[in-house]
Each structure stands twice: as C-alpha cells, then as structure tokens.
Design goal:
The chain is α/β, with parallel strands linked by helices. The chain has helices at residues 6-10, 84-91, 101-115, 121-129, 162-170, 192-209, 228-238, 251-254, 256-261, 284-289, 298-301, 322-327, 338-360, 364-371, 398-407, 413-423, 431-442, 447-460, 465-477, 481-494, 499-513, and strands spanning 32-46, 64-75, 81-83, 131-136, 145-151, 174-178, 215-225, 244-248, 274-278, 307-312, 384-389.
Length: 518
C-alpha cells in the first residue's frame, strides 16, 4: 500500500485522536447492509507499463487493469459484523489481489504509520476495532435497487467514505466503489488523463453492476469526493446510463482548466440533476494568494440541469471523507472541532439521500426536502445554505429532437427543428447523426418517419450528396417513384457517374411506363 501525501492536502499532523464514525440524521435505513469484496480486471486496458519501472525489463505477469470493487447492498441480517480494520485490510489488496494475511497486516501498519503517524497504539487499536454497520458477505435481499457508483478522491482507497456508502445501502441502494488509481501506477496524477481513467473505472463498475440481480440499472448515480467529483462528471458526459450526479467538494469546482480540456463535457451532455456539496468558500483574497481565481465554471454553464449547490459552512475539504473523521488529526478540520465537522458530515449524507430519493426514486417528499429552506428541514442554524438552479428547458440535442418528434406523432420534424433553432441559434445536428437516425426507421420499414428526417437533413446540408441519396433511396422504398426519380437526379448532380443512382432512375422510369407510379 502506497504512502499518500496527505500532508500536502491537509497540513502536518500535530495531534491525532481517533473517533467513532459519523451518524446521519434519522439513523440508518430499514435494510440490513451486506458488504463484499470483488476482484475484477478491466481487460480493455493495460495497467503496468510495458517496461517495469523498477527492473527496466519487460513487465511480467498480469497486465490488465485491476479493479477491486467494494459492494454495499441491502441484505439479510446475517453474518459477522465488519470492523473498521477490515476496510483498511481490503485496501492492501487493491493493486495486488493475492497478498497473504501477513503481507496485508504489514501493509495496514505501514499505511497507518505513513498517514497517521501521531495515532498512538491505543488509539489505533480502538479505531480499528470499531464495529461498522455492514456484515461481511451477508445474503443479498431479493428485489431491485438503484445503483450508486462511488469515486474516491485522488489516489484514495475505495472505502474512504465507507460510512456514507453503508448508510445509503441501508436506505435501499446498491453502492459500488473502487480505489482511485492512476493510469499505470497506484498513485494518480492531477490531470485530464487521470480524471478520464477514473471516469472509465466508473463506467466499468456500472457495467459490472448491471450483471447483479439486485441492480436497477435504469436508475444510476455517480458520486465522487474531491478528484472523484471531477471524474464522475466526465463519466456522465460520456455515459448516459448515469442519470444523476453527486459531488462531495468535488474537483469539478477546483480544477476548471482540466474540465475545459474535456471539450465533450458540455451542458448539453450534462443535462441531468446534480448535487454539489462544497466546503466553506474561500475569500477572494485567499483565492488570489493561492492563484486559484477560476476563469471558468462548468456548473455555471449547466443551464439544462437541476443543480443543487449546498455550502457546508463548518466543513473543510477533509471533513467530506469519513476516514479523516475517524483517524485524522484535529487540524484537518480547520477552525472547527471534529464534533462540528462530524455533525455537518451527517447532514451532508442526509442531503445526498434526499437527492437520490428525489431523482432515482421519484420521491415527492424528498424533492420537497431538496427545495426547502434548511430550517424547514430541521437543519441546525447556520450549518449550511442551499442554492438551487432549475433547468432551463430541454437541451438542444438530437436526442431531444427525437423525443419531441415522437411526442408530435412523428410529424412536422422541420417545425420542431425550427422551434429548437430559434431557442438556440447554434443548434444544428450532425449530418451523419441525422442519417444514422433515419436508418433506425429504415431498419423497421417506417419510411414516412425516415423521409421526414432526410428532408430535414437535405435542407440543413444542401451540398450533401450522401443525404440526398438517402432521401432518394427512402422515397424508392416507399414507392414514391416520382419523388425518388427527382432525388436520384439530384444525386447525379453531386456524383455524375454513380451507377446505383442511374440504375434506380432507369428502373423507376420503367415502372412509370408500366403505370406503377405512386
């Protein structure tokens, strides 16, 4: 297990005292919680470098990307309860699946010494002995449950927010996490490549989750802490199986330059509900001193999203991670005490639950909670503030246009596009995307709908021989022979030697002579 550079994030540890984990308002949910470890490989990606960085020789053994997943799920109340030490021991096999018990024990001791050097033996023993909510390998309950994929902070372990993951499982969610790992090494860089690598891990775990009998893969949230709260946004921009986002003081706020490099992370692709829980905001003067004056904010651009921006006034960055609450030194919580940070962490979890219930379960009471003033939710005074931005209509995309086309009985696609274009003058669907959409209707012999699509395509792309050919072909299949001949003749204006167009014209003209005109 590698040494994490926590001092760079949280300052030098000068005093440490272990504590029990956070509690959440209302307590755990109705379900007992099972927990298990699953060791997987993503064989679409290489993990160790081709040349071993230590020996300088070609790498030996398994080179696929290891993804050890921790699962929390609604379960039968059976099996032995997990202790916090079990989570630390699981981290010892995140990269090396086959470590012995002795190797795992040594790795845990090294991890504690490297990251919590002022945690004395008695404190360490007490912290690791604490009983958790989950039970090891408990039998899963029958039924389907929404999925939450959790992405830890940069280089962090899969269990770094185990308390929150257990809490959500007790409320009826299937929660899956893997460690935050670099592209080719256990430690992660802070760059776009690393963020995209973690985003691919999120999608891989979602694909695995979909194979589980308990998984309701039509309702999926990606939740991330710190750098994981940037990776989850990139994952959602490329994977529309993700239907909601949760960010725990996520780096989507703190690394705008990386977000801008991901040109595909557009407001149109991120038209999904998002909950952002951030710590006490910096002053403008401090942001200037640390050279972190943002010139770009993706969240400010997300006008097609239901965006809940929650400011937790008594939480430093470390307080969003339950491992820090359990093991970290007091200075990690800034001017606030561990008790104050722990209280706020509990309310953080309560807002996460309400958000997930509102948008993955369509729970009206939970949606009302999200839109209430904090005092109406019995939040302690001055603990947090909520800023809500409601979506400004549907995004101008081909998907939206397809949805509206269906709602209009697959009529007047040109009018639908005209209305969308008036709202956003930059909206112009890609030519090949439109052609591929039309092919979906051709495949099921729905020619009138395909004709609507290809008429629009040829009007938007009047210089496209390809679009005109598809329109001509569709007219022909629909037996609109006269229109087909006209369209094929226009195709020959682009490609005078196109044999297919000439043959179709000759065939259709013969049909005209034989009285087979439509």
């Amino acid at each position: 297990m590698r040494k994490r550079l926590l001092v760079l994030l949280f300052g030098v540890a000068v005093q440490t005292s272990s504590a029990a984990g956070p509690t959440f308002p209302g307590g755990p949910g109705q379900y007992a919680v099972g927990q298990r470890v699953v060791q997987l490989y993503d064989r679409s990606r290489a993990y160790p470098n081709r040349i071993d960085l230590v020996t300088g020789m070609p790498a030996q053994g398994e080179r696929a990307r290891p993804l050890q997943a921790l699962l929390w799920y609604p379960a039968e109340k059976q099996g032995a309860a997990i202790h916090y030490e079990d989570y630390l021991r699981s981290a010892a096999t995140e990269e090396q699946f086959k470590r012995t018990d002795a190797e795992v024990g040594k790795a845990v001791a090294t991890y504690l010494q490297d990251n919590y050097p002022n945690l004395d033996a008695q404190q360490s023993k007490a912290a690791l002995a604490q009983t958790m909510l989950a039970r090891r390998d408990a039998p899963p309950l029958a039924g389907k449950f929404p999925i939450v994929i959790y992405a830890p902070g940069s280089s962090a372990t899969a269990y770094d927010n185990a308390d929150l993951c257990e809490y959500l499982a007790s409320q009826g969610y299937l929660v899956i996490a893997s460690a935050s790992t670099g592209m080719h090494t256990r430690s992660m860089n802070i760059d776009l490549d690393s963020a995209e690598s973690e985003a691919r891990d999120i999608s891989f775990l979602l694909g695995y989750a979909a194979t589980l009998p308990q998984a309701d893969d039509s309702h999926v949230a990606a939740m991330g802490y710190s750098f994981g709260g940037l990776a989850n946004v990139l994952a959602a921009a490329r994977d529309d199986r993700i239907t909601a986002l949760v960010s725990l003081d996520g780096s989507v706020r703190y690394f705008p330059a990386i977000v801008q490099q991901a040109a595909y992370a557009t407001p149109e692709r991120l038209a999904l509900p998002m909950l952002y829980l951030g710590g006490k905001p910096y002053t403008a003067e401090l942001m200037n001193r640390i050279k972190q004056v943002p010139t770009y904010s993706l969240m400010n651009q997300m006008k097609f999203s239901e965006l809940y921006n929650v400011t937790m006034y008594t939480m430093e960055h470390a307080a969003f991670q339950s491992e820090s609450l359990r093991l970290g030194p007091e200075p990690r919580f800034g001017e606030y005490s561990r008790d104050e940070a722990t209280l706020a962490h509990g309310w953080m979890g309560r807002y996460v639950l309400a958000f997930l219930n509102a948008y993955l379960r369509n729970d009206a009471a939970a949606l009302a909670f999200m839109n209430n003033k904090p005092t109406a939710n019995s939040v302690p005074a001055h603990l947090l503030a909520v800023d809500v931005h409601h979506a400004e209509g549907e995004p101008p995309t081909l998907t939206t246009m397809a949805s509206q086309f269906a709602r209009h009985g697959h009529k007047d696609l040109t009018g639908i596009y005209r209305d969308m274009h008036q709202r956003d003058a930059s909206f112009k669907p890609d030519e090949r995307g439109l052609i591929a959409w039309g092919e979906k209707f051709l495949d099921v012999n729905r020619y009138p709908e395909a004709i609507e699509i290809y008429r629009l395509t040829t009007s938007l792309y009047p210089d496209s021989g390809r679009a005109m050919f598809y329109l001509a072909m569709t007219y022909e299949r629909h037996h609109d022979n006269t229109l087909a001949i006209e369209a094929y003749q226009r195709v020959l204006g682009f490609w005078p030697d196109m044999a297919e167009a000439k043959q179709s014209i000759a065939k259709l003209k013969t049909a005209e002579k034989d009285g087979q005109i439509k």
